[in-house]
Design a protein that fits this description.
Strand order of the largest sheet of chain A: 2-3-4-9
Structural class of chain B: mainly alpha
Number of domains of chain A: 2
Radius of gyration of chain B: 31 Å
Helix content of chain A: 25-40%
CATH architecture of the largest domain in chain B: Up-down Bundle
Radius of gyration of chain A: 25 Å
Number of helices of chain A: 5
Oligomer: heterodimer
CATH class of the largest domain in chain A: Mainly Beta
């Protein structure tokens, strides 16, 4: 009769068996977790963002706001049309631009430009923005998201690749009021975001472009 | 014994299921639970089975690829024999399932069935409700059209507001940086494997507890639930006044289940399948996305919450609501069951129903959204132009061209975002009109930069004519006095 402090041979083997399974399960959990988190870890390496050309400067008349589209830099074979993204390009004057995300800063619905009244309006919850993207009225808490841009060899080029959402780290990268040459733009972004290593990697990359 | 009997015995000797099944079928239930109020649980199960069958049928044709999903739905609607009907059954089945699950929940709440010892049955039920809503949302995504695409954007925007983890949740939800192929694939996995698997498990658990603990007896005012005595009382009740579930109570379940299936089929036949609406092409922005029926209240709520309250309400609200539902049986696990003696419970249900109903109704015609095409559709009605001066007519043109009627209605056409302008001159004086147009405010954008001084003058001149016949426009009495004093002063000056 075994007392409570001893353990039988079979009992020990059972416990060892459970332990063995636990170890294997933990080891297998690592590749499973890495697989599940791949969309996040890939974003960490800033593999999603890159510079995308929108068109020649002459395609955007001065003082006007035009709809433009681009193909997302990161695509998968099954994306179909969803890899295309629209944005609003406002040419203030000369090489001074503002490129707004199509997504309302409230909940991401597509905003539309009304040239006559000089407003962007959102069909979902009634957000409205002025021509410079600043908030005019409605539920949005901020102005429209703005893509960093530069003019290179006469082409308007924006840094894009992620869905702009209110909480995204790139959202702080969007919405800068620095419509000037590409280098100044980069410096202004750099100064605001120098703390984050993630954006540093991104900046290193963009500097080689600039 | 006949051949069939022998075959049955052969199987039962090996399966040994006949006795457990007989016990389940003949278990005694209190006689007064054989009521039409007790049929919603079985009806929800019936619709769930319908969803499983029609879902599998749809999966025979549907292609979960962002590039092809929409076309495969078109093929289901137009090419495959009766594909439209199976889609319609699945779509209407989902609406019915959410509705029946909610009705079931309200009935269980009002009949006090969540009290001791059925707390866990209620909690599992709360998870079943959440999974049902999860199925409704993911199902809407699989109908990969414009509404699904922009609906995902709304979901991502809400998720991104979670502090710190927001961006990670968004990428996990979308399967990448944007709404694209990977997004649809993972929502397909959720809708077809993950959530249904959990639903089946939880439904079994839910049913098992209903059988083990017995169906809730008809609540009698004054018969209080006490932990110490309830189980004994319940067993006495089923012994004294019980009847076998089959056939005493089951016939009502059967009739109601058949009626619900008939109703789903009738809706499917009459109304047809839901969408798909436009192609999920993000470059086509002429769209006003809207969620499916059961999320319309949320859509409405999101436009009425003040901006500063929105993020806390979106992130804390659901947590509080779910926590309250889960804790409910622990907050009031004993005591009165009957709704006749629980006025706060009844009022809570009514209040929630009225709030959800009102928000859903409002989301049906979105008075908060500008009419995005009012500028080209509606000229200023003729009656507002009769007898107007050239300047005032010029103002009417400004009103038309500057898209004022995207937000303001005139002659009952135009947006409802801002107030109707039919009698605006009665409410605002000339100065107030000028200020409102130029500076905006009260949810109106400022038009100072979009209007020339001449346009503003003309517009305000026109707005001043907008008052009912026989009712004078608002005017600032002090201004008249000030102006006339000024005039007198100037006239008097030479003397």
């Amino acid at each position: 009769m075994p007392n409570e402090n001893t353990i039988s041979r079979r009992g020990l083997f059972m416990k060892l068996g459970i332990l063995f399974n636990g170890l294997i399960a933990t080891a297998l959990a690592v590749p499973v977790a890495r697989f599940l988190l791949s969309s996040v870890t890939r974003g960490r390496a800033s593999a999603y963002l890159s510079w995308v050309p929108l068109g020649h400067v002459s395609e955007f008349p001065e003082g006007e706001t035009r709809l433009s589209t681009f193909r997302n830099p990161y695509v998968t074979p099954t994306d179909g049309k969803t890899a295309e993204t629209a944005c609003w390009v406002r040419r203030v004057e000369g090489e001074q631009f503002q490129v707004f995300a199509i997504n309302c800063a409230h909940l991401g619905c597509p905003v539309r430009w009304f040239a006559q009244s000089g407003l962007f309006m959102c069909p979902c919850h009634g957000g409205a923005y002025y021509r410079d993207g600043s908030r005019a009225s409605g539920p949005p808490e901020r102005g429209l998201f703005e893509y960093p841009y530069k003019v290179q060899d006469g082409m308007v080029t924006i840094q894009a690749g992620e869905l702009p959402t209110p909480g995204a780290p790139t959202a702080s990268l969007f919405g800068k009021k620095a419509p000037c040459g590409a280098r100044n733009e980069l410096v202004s972004i750099e100064s605001k975001l120098s703390a984050s290593s993630e954006t540093n990697a991104l900046l290193r990359k963009t500097k080689t472009w600039a | 014994m006949g051949v069939i009997g022998q075959i049955g015995q052969w199987f039962d000797r090996r399966l040994q299921l006949a006795n457990p099944i007989r016990e389940v079928v003949e278990h005694p239930v209190p006689r007064n639970t054989a009521s039409w109020f007790y049929v919603f649980g079985s009806a929800a199960l019936t619709v769930f089975l319908l969803q499983l069958v029609t879902g599998i049928l749809l999966a025979l044709i549907y292609v979960p690829s962002a590039g092809e999903a929409w076309s495969s739905l078109q093929a289901l609607n137009h090419d495959v024999t009766l594909g439209w009907f199976i889609r319609a059954m699945h779509g209407w089945g989902s609406n019915f399932m959410v509705a029946i699950v909610l009705i079931h929940m309200v009935q269980v709440f009002l009949f006090g069935a969540y009290k001791f010892p059925r707390e866990l049955t209620w909690i599992v039920g709360v998870f079943l409700l959440l999974m049902t809503l999860g199925m409704a949302f993911t199902g809407q995504v699989l109908r990969f059209d414009q509404d699904a695409y922009w609906g995902l954007g709304i979901g991502a925007s809400i998720a991104s507001r979670v502090p710190i983890a927001g961006p990670i949740i968004v990428k996990l939800m979308l399967g990448g940086p944007i709404i694209a192929g990977a997004t649809l694939s993972r929502f397909f996995a959720l809708h077809v494997f993950v959530i249904p698997g959990m639903l089946i498990g939880f439904v079994c658990l839910h049913l098992l507890m209903v059988l083990k603990l017995g169906i809730n007896e008809w609540p009698m005012p004054g018969r209080l639930v006490k932990r110490a005595t309830y189980e004994n009382e319940y067993h006495q009740l089923t012994r004294k006044d019980g009847a076998p579930f089959v056939p005493y109570a089951v016939w009502k379940d059967l009739f109601f289940a058949a009626f619900i299936l008939l109703a789903v089929a009738a809706c499917a036949l009459y109304f047809g399948p839901f969408g798909p609406t436009g192609r999920p092409d993000p470059t086509v922005i002429q769209t006003a996305p809207k969620p499916d029926y059961f999320f319309l209240w949320l859509y409405g709520l999101l436009s009425y919450l003040p901006p500063s309250m929105e993020t806390p309400a979106l992130l804390i609200g659901p947590v509080v609501a779910i926590a309250f539902l889960i804790l409910l049986p622990f907050l009031s696990g004993e005591g009165e069951k009957s709704w006749r003696r629980r006025p706060i419970a009844v009022l809570t249900v009514l209040l929630i129903a009225i709030i959800l109903g009102t928000l859903t109704h409002l989301a049906g015609y979105t008075p908060w959204s500008p009419h995005m095409n009012a500028w080209s559709g509606d000229p200023v009605p003729e009656q507002f132009l009769h007898g107007r001066t050239a300047l005032e007519r010029r103002g009417a043109l400004v009103l038309q061209v500057k898209q004022c009627r995207n937000c303001h209605s005139l002659g009952e056409s135009g947006g409802q975002r801002g107030p109707a302008l039919d009698s605006v001159a009665v409410r605002l004086t000339q100065d107030q009109l000028i200020r409102q147009v130029i500076q905006g405010g009260g949810n109106m954008p400022a038009y100072g930069k979009s209007l020339s001084p001449a346009e503003t003058t003309a517009l305000v001149a026109f707005l001043e004519t907008l008052h009912p016949r026989g009712q004078a426009p608002a005017r600032d009495a002090a201004r008249d006095i000030a102006l006339s004093a000024d005039k007198d002063h100037r006239q008097g000056a030479p003397r």
